[in-house]
Specification:
six-stranded parallel sheet; 3 domains; 10 strands; single chain; Helix Hairpins; about 350 residues; Alpha-Beta Plaits; alpha/beta; four-stranded antiparallel sheet; Rossmann fold; about 15% strand
Length: about 350
């Protein structure tokens, strides 16, 4: 697992390794030049620097005259002191960075798993490709908690959400994502077979889970529905329909796009289910006073059997279990939710 915050400090441990290697390279270069000035050929000069800095003491090269002068001894002494110190520092920070990186990764996994273990009523998204990223981004704007499952090795680097790296078709991976405590699951894998397998597994692990599945081929829609998906979406078909709308009804398409996707827009579409004891249960829209209480416009009502009542009249009576599709500002939608949930008793 991964987290965007460092677990130790703000200094990249590998930066210290790079610094040590840079200084060591400078020492080797300076020592080679110094020995060259003392009369050694370039290759011999470099060899002498290497065996001096590494303190192997093997086959020391003497000046051309065969005598070890004071300058030669001075250069060698400086190289031993400086070179050994720099080499030891570089080696030390290398192992420190290696151990620290592994420890950070391990602690990150534990921290991420603890966070996921504490989550409930969240949404699990399987697959973080282009479709999965778009889904996650949209769900996040609504403030819903999300857990991502993906097999990509760099998933923790490109995703700042609670993330599990693994195969979503594995039941254990789904359990790690808290599937039994989740409110919903979105399968957005690249293959229909993968989405079908995840749908079956998730439905088995959590029978009442709400599942939305991606279908890449039309032939997969019925299979996914039979496997337990509550909704099946073909991104290619939706994309094609939207592009066609821009061609034949561009203004309507723009309005619907802004209403559904722009969180800064003043008005928004929303839905609200009529529960037991609601002010709306059994009363007509006009009698209940919903418009006066909240200011929203009821565009449609969906019955429990899945049918819609479009443009309901003032005499339409919502029943328990019906879902109201409404249009209004965020404040109006909030007022509606509060008003509807208040018992009429």
């Amino acid at each position: 697992m991964s987290d965007t915050e460092p677990y130790f400090d703000d200094v990249d441990p590998w930066a210290r390794v790079q610094l040590g290697l840079g200084v060591l390279a400078g020492v080797l270069a300076a020592g080679t030049v110094a020995y060259r000035l003392l009369g050694l050929p370039w290759l011999d000069a470099f060899y002498q620097v290497v065996i001096t800095v590494t303190t192997v003491g093997y086959g020391e090269v003497l000046p051309p005259d065969g005598e070890m002068t004071s300058n030669y001894r001075l250069v060698t002494s400086i190289l031993v002191l400086v070179g050994v110190a720099v080499g030891a520092y570089t080696l030390g920070v290398f192992f420190e960075a290696l151990i620290e990186g592994r420890l950070s990764t391990h602690l990150g996994r534990l921290r991420m798993q603890r966070e996921i273990d504490q989550m409930s009523d969240h949404i699990v998204i399987c697959g973080f490709g282009q479709v999965g990223q778009a889904i996650a981004g949209s769900i996040r704007t609504h403030g819903e908690p999300v857990v991502i499952i993906d097999v990509a090795e760099d998933i923790h680097e490109i995703c700042d959400l609670p993330t599990i790296r693994g195969d979503a078709t594995d039941d254990e991976i789904l359990r790690y994502a808290g599937i039994t405590r989740a409110r919903g699951l979105v399968t957005a894998l690249d293959t229909d077979a993968g989405n079908l397998f995840v749908t079956i597994s998730a439905r088995t692990l959590h029978p009442s889970l709400y599942i939305v599945s991606r279908a890449n081929e039309r032939s997969a829609v019925k299979k996914l529905e039979s496997a337990g998906a509550d909704r099946v979406v073909n991104p290619h078909q939706i994309g094609g329909s939207r592009m066609a709308s821009f061609m034949v009804r561009p203004n309507v398409a723009d309005f619907m796009g802004e209403t559904m996707q722009d969180d800064q827009l003043e008005v928004e579409l929303s839905e609200l289910q009529v529960g037991k004891g609601s002010r709306l249960a059994g009363l007509s829209l006009s009698t209940s006073g919903i418009r006066a209480a909240s200011g929203v416009i009821v565009l449609a009502i969906r019955r429990p059997d899945g049918t819609f009542v479009h443009q309901p009249s003032a005499s339409t009576k919502p029943a328990v279990g019906d879902v109201l599709i409404t249009l209004g500002t965020a404040d109006q939608q909030s007022a509606l939710a509060s008003w509807v949930s208040t018992s009429s008793r």
